[in-house]
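In response to reviewer comment 3 from the previous cycle, which asked for concrete evidence that the modeling workflow produces usable outputs, we include below a single protein chain processed end to end. The sequence was submitted unchanged, and the resulting structure tokens are shown without manual editing.
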Amino acid sequence: MTLHIDKLGRGPVSLVMLHGWAMHGGVMAPLVEALENRCTMYVVDLPGHGYSRDCGIPLEPSACAAAIAAKTPPAIWLGWSLGGLIALTAALDMPRQVRGLAMLCATPKFVRDASWSYGNDASLVRQLATDLENDYHATIERFLALEAMGSADPRAELRHLRTLVFARGEPNLRVLQEGIQILDNSDRRAALPDLAVRSAWIAGRRDRLVPPQAMQWSASQCAGSYQEIEHAGHAPFFGHADVVAQALQRLLANTHPAMSPL
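The workflow returned the following structure tokens.
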């Protein structure tokens, strides 16, 4: 099976969209709808997720970014959560392919340590890895609850995430473990000053997984724009898709269109 990518929208700006851990490209539907007249979108199911469950490509950011770049035209890349690490890697490694970078509730370093106060507790990440082996579905449920925390209506958002998460089949357990390791080990902070493309960093003020301060600091390191969505949690495209789309307008307007016959 090959990497699954949906081509959606009819606008002049090419945009690659990458979802977060344990999800699939279908969760980005509200943002796709908000941008369909502005962008032609290449909405990816990351390896091991959704319709790419059995594609065999590793989730490792450089390998994953290269596989996506081989199937998409030069474009702005938007990454949500774990997808942001892949989008950031692509922007650093392939600036000719990545015309701009949008980081949506995504950070260059997920885990907190002595050098980084804007991360999550390392024990949370490592407990998720352990729990995956013991109770796969309960672990995903726990992570969904963390994603929904802080939103204006966390119960409704959690119900929505539950409905979506298995809509394209169950994610591959091996790749979920790879994703946990990526969250635990990745640190691209030092590379941010080398980012050669325009970037937009969009945070949910109530996000309980990626602190807005992490994104504000990251934007300052690469001369990127920064915006907080006041009443949003970790998944601001639920309930705030129009606000996210508006936050992207400057990045979209300053990037030359790049269409493709794909």
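The domain at 5-253 is CATH 3.40.50.1820 (Rossmann fold). We consider this sufficient to address the reviewer's concern, and the full set will be provided in the supplementary archive.
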